[in-house]
Design brief:
It is built from four helices and no strands. By secondary structure, it is mainly alpha-helical. The chain has one domain. Helix 2 crosses helix 3 and helix 2 crosses helix 4. The protein is elongated and about 55 Å long. The two termini are about 35 Å apart. About 0% of the residues are buried.
């Protein structure tokens, strides 16, 4: 286990709390949300070949609005805005 004895109490003394997460949780990983958008964009086109796929990913990344990144981090509980 990764839960060291006494840590929870030390954290709570400072007014914070510990959130135990599963080993991997895509719901708490902003990059998963980004790739979901990229995959949906790429899926719109019937691309063949690695060069075309790479270009579509590049275009998809370019088209993502900056505010989306802040929203994904907020949704994943990493920041307030």
């Amino acid at each position: 286990s990764h839960k060291m004895e006494g840590i929870k109490e030390l954290v709570e003394e400072k007014g914070a709390r510990i959130e135990y997460l599963p080993p991997y949780s895509p719901d708490f990983n902003p990059i998963e949300m980004m790739w979901s958008v990229i995959k949906a964009f790429v899926h719109l086109y019937c691309t063949r070949g690695m060069a075309a796929l790479e270009k579509l990913v590049e275009i998809g990344l370019y088209l993502i609005e900056t505010s989306s990144f802040s929203n994904w981090f907020a949704k994943c509980c990493y920041c307030d805005s």
